[in-house]
Design a protein that fits this description.
Strand 17 and strand 18 (218-224) form a beta hairpin. Helix content is 22%, strand content 27%. It is built from 15 helices and 35 strands. Helix 7 (399-411) runs antiparallel to helix 8, helix 7 packs across helix 12 (472-491) and helix 12 (472-491) runs parallel beside helix 13.
Length: 630
Amino acid sequence: MSVPVFDSFDISYKEPFGAIRQYQSARFTLRFPQEWHIAEPTLVVFRPENKERFIPLEVSGTEGGCTVCSCSFYPMNVGLHYYYFAVTIDGNRRYIKRNGASVGVLDDGDMFQLTVFSPDEHSPDWIKGGVMYQIFPDRFYRSKAAHSDVPEDRIIHDNWYDTPFYRPDEKGTIRNNDYFGGDLKGIAEKLPYLKALGVTCIYLNPIFESHENHRYSTACYERIDPLLGTEEDFTDLCEKAKSEGIRVILDGVFSHTGADSMYFNKFGRYGENFGAYRSPDSRYRDWYCFVRYPEEYESWWGISTLPNVNENNPDYTEYICGEGGILQKWIDKGAAGWRLDVADELPDEFIDNINRAVKAKGGDKVIYGEVWEDASNKESYGVRRRYLIGGQLDSVMNYPFKEAIINYVKFSDPTAFRDGIMTILEHYPKPAADILMNFLSTHDTERILTRLAGDEVGWHDREWQAERYLADWQYVYGIALVKCAMVLQFFLPGVPCVYYGDEAGLEGYKDPFNRRGYPWGRENTELIAFTSELSRVRKASPAFVQGDMKFLTVTSEECVFVRADEQTGESAIVILNKSKHTKTYDINGFGDYYGMNVLRGTSGDNIIVAPFDYAVISCKAGRGEIAAAQ
């Protein structure tokens, strides 16, 4: 059979591509070989909590030796839907299900997914087409400003280039109490650098008072950590950033607090009779889940320094999400939105409340969630999550793209790459896909340069990881691979998010070695210039704002794809040559495109792309090509 019976990635089989809004019609088309004697072709759709719907397909004609059957489906409910097809062939009832990522086959396979989201769901326009930059505040840049009220038990490195402490103390505890002194004024001083890099949004790891350098053990949500600065410093940073066309979003850690906090106060830092651990009459007592008061309590992943909170405790919910609460306070001080730490551990009701609180400050305020898997069908603690279908998250951290890009660049499996990218785009509502946080490394993962060119970390311990760097040949090769990965990061749907120092060639295995200080004075200036160029090219074409996606060619050596925006008619063709050989492309050989303008690369009838390099062509698309990219 030359054509599949069904392919969910192809709009000639399912239109529109991907997720649809509630009450929006989707058209399904199957192509059966004419030698099959078919009867009663049926679309079977169901939601996990409801009965199936059986929708007959009608014969609409013949095409290429196939009988073509079609039907329309109008979803009445938001949420996750699954579907497959049933048909009688030669008197036997058969089933067409998904094989691999998108192709329908007889009898053996899985169901297809259809995400239906709220008709009112939209993502903030300001972030589309932009560039994000993630900063781990202690390690980006330290100003010469003096800071008051810094606790005396903190160890501050004199040498910015030191390796962070990683060995346990005499009690076997890793204390995370060494600091490098990066601060908010330091970030403000480096705003010209970030603007030149093309950054339009800064994502800050936690900045609130905490007694560990990562600050995911919040001690007080109401105060900036004293080593970072003051509330005025934060407001000043946001105002200066906005004047440069840059907005700031904050990291919200709401599933747990620190044990060493004003709320729990296990160690008495905040007074002998204050906090849930030390006073059964504390206001905060019912925020936590004590198994045996006070010594035994629920904590995040069993880490006793991170006691879990009951997010739906009315007092805690009001404190975080109420009018004038923590979420709104920091938006009023200048934040443009929030990234929610461990979103899969936050109950739906709590995320609903977060959404209401944040959006009450304006529809332009953004909410991202930390979700490591496919967020459209994520289950956590036995509950199917509804992050992206309306009223919760605007979008998520895009770990599936990260892994797809890394595996393609490093191991050259084109099918897995294409299927991985297209599956996420098929499953996610377009408003969420347009602003996906596309990163290559974060504070929780190995640095991209190390991941692509270094020895595999495997089960190697911290002693092995600590001072292990790339050999010269690994570094040169690794930079070439990083450039390839960044091309995909910047031009696939979503918003590229550069983890501070990645653009400067910073290396590092897992925490804390992925959190070294930014290498000021030791930067890879070539890679910085490359990153700035990617930003300029990205901003030069409206197609990268919210254009649809279509792969033209994906092999182990090259990737060619187009972004096409139906609303503006603008398109952009991206060519990545990840091979060791120069490749030549006919500028008129990409399909029904015209008005070619080379944004990056050689001009003329032929585009010549050097090894480990790329080209981008701005163009207009014919109607057929725009439709095919949806």
